[in-house]
Design a protein that fits this description.
single chain; alpha+beta; Glutamine Phosphoribosylpyrophosphate, subunit 1, domain 1; Rossmann fold; 2 domains; 7-stranded antiparallel β-sheet; 6-stranded antiparallel β-sheet; 17 helices; binds iron/sulfur cluster
Length: 487
């Protein structure tokens, strides 16, 4: 069994996601990097390790240049200078990145900006191409040179190498070679492209008003710009958005995958944990979905408790739904410090032991002597939950019944989510009763997969549940199959 300190060294005790994207096109000349700052800031939760923008700027002499600024750090750290500078133009894209492939390296920051036989272009990508290693090996064998370990650079190589001369055709040529998850924004010769994989793993939206058209991962990136009209970029769709035309009148829609051949696989974890509760994804409010999950979790749970409380913030809406369904008072017995960083970046074990305390603090006057239903989103290694349970016991909680708004995570993800190896996942080592003892809780209960499917508004088959049940929506290669083995 891994110790807490081992866990901390190995990585975060949450599934982690890979990136948010934004792209925009304006009617009048505007300060494009400043406009991109806002949706990227709103989508900061999708990736905190690097940020960047590529925009086309017009000089006082009327010359247009494509410029990229990116670096390690938060949007506010990398892009704040743009709030006080002026870069007039009409088109740009941006990206927030969470790093797993190749680690937290500056050369993996996005967007990727290149000059190739199709001209100058820049690409930002959210997701994970599940057959990327095969493609990269093939290209390397043919003499391709890579400056990063990012999937995005490989996609650009494929676009450049396509024998089709028109970009749209080269894009189609490229996209049909890719498997896995990709929600992308690309700029090329005054056009903004929004592209989504045929299974729709990750969200992607396009919104518009009378001044601009914006592409974002989540609708919270539209809200911040005051945009209320929007639609999803459809799975298997390329939107080519041109300058001068706003909203649907300004774009052409192309399919690189026929609708009839598509079996959707939206990532159900986007609802459980990743997306912001004020966003809409996959056509549905994240908040409402989490509340429904909480109600479902309560539907066959009869534990007696004085209060229901969430592990903030991702447990909030599910805990509220649970409390409403059971008629048990809802309390916020843990306060979250929103300025605390991720625990695994702390250098010493003593500091890592302290990490949960830096993030969460119980309110003794709320929890003392009380029996609690504590609602969290998921269990990965269990390290954080164990420390939270101890914090609450130390604050005087009498009983702690941990409820998880997801099924047990037992398998890795190949579509853009960083989940530890099967052996590290606590649900592969311990059944709920043993888990409760390990975590110091009085009981532990997970939402069943059946219960989760019941929350999907009659569309249970449009989602991916592979990290819970090992049923992957795409065939796995030998290396991936090996990763699904429990050693
Ligand atoms: S395996 Fe899990 S985390 Fe990955 S896409 Fe499927 S549901 Fe999402």
């Amino acid at each position: 069994m891994a110790t807490d300190s081992d866990d901390d060294r190995q990585g975060p005790d949450r599934p982690e996601h890979h990136c948010g994207v934004a792209g925009l096109l304006t009617k009048e000349e505007s300060n494009i990097p400043e406009l991109l700052f806002y949706p990227l800031y709103a989508q900061q939760h999708r990736g905190q390790e690097s940020a960047g923008v590529t925009y086309v700027e017009r000089s006082p002499h009327g010359i247009e240049s494509m410029i990229t600024k990116k670096g390690l750090g938060l949007v506010s750290q990398v892009l704040t200078p743009f709030l006080s500078e002026n870069h007039p133009g009409k088109i740009g894209i941006g990206h927030n990145r969470y790093s797993t492939h190749g680690g937290n390296l500056a050369q993996n920051a996005q967007p990727f900006h290149i000059l190739c036989n199709k001209g100058e272009m820049a690409l930002g990508h959210n997701g994970n191409i599940s057959n990327i290693e095969f493609i990269r090996r093939t290209l390397t064998d043919e003499g391709a040179i890579f400056s990063s370990t990012s999937d995005t650079e490989v996609i650009l190589h494929l676009i450049s190498r396509s024998h089709k001369h028109k970009l749209l055709e080269a894009l189609t040529d490229t996209l049909i070679q890719l498997q896995g998850a990709f929600s992308m924004v690309l700029i090329h010769q005054g056009l903004l492209y929004a592209i989504r994989d045929p299974k729709g793993f990750r969200p992607l939206y396009v919104g518009w008003n009378d001044k601009l058209t914006v592409v974002v991962s989540e609708t919270c990136g539209l809200d911040i710009l005051g945009i209320t009209e929007y639609r999803e970029v459809e799975p298997g769709e390329i939107l080519a958005i041109r300058q001068g035309g706003l909203g649907p009148a300004g774009w052409t829609s192309h399919r690189f995958s026929p609708l009839s051949s598509q079996k959707l696989s939206h990532c159900i974890f986007e609802f459980i944990y990743f997306a912001r509760p004020d966003s809409e994804i996959f056509g549905r409010s994240v908040y409402k979905m989490r509340q429904a999950i909480g109600r479902q979790l309560a539907s066959d749970d009869f534990v007696e408790a004085d209060m229901v409380m969430p592990v903030p913030d991702s447990g909030n809406a599910a805990a509220l739904g649970y409390a409403q369904a059971r008629g048990i008072p809802f309390e916020m017995g843990l306060t979250r410090n929103h300025f605390a960083g991720r625990s695994f970046t702390l250098p010493s074990q003593a500091q890592r032991e302290f990490a949960v305390k830096m993030k969460l603090n119980p309110i003794p006057s709320v929890v003392r002597g009380k029996s609690l239903v504590l609602v969290d989103d998921s269990l990965v290694r269990g390290t954080t939950s164990k420390r939270i349970v101890k914090l609450l016991r130390d604050a005087g909680a009498r009983e702690i019944h941990l409820r998880l708004s997801s099924p047990e995570i037992q398998y890795p993800c190949f579509y853009g989510i960083d989940i530890p190896t099967r052996g590290e996942l606590i649900s592969n080592r311990l059944a709920p009763d043993a888990l409760a003892a390990e975590l110091g809780a009085d009981s532990v209960k997970f939402l069943s997969e059946e219960g989760l499917r019941a929350c999907t508004e009659n569309q249970p088959d449009d989602y991916c549940y592979a990290c819970f049940n090992g049923k992957y929506p795409e065939p796995l290669d030998a290396a991936q199959k090996k990763q699904t083995e429990l050693k």
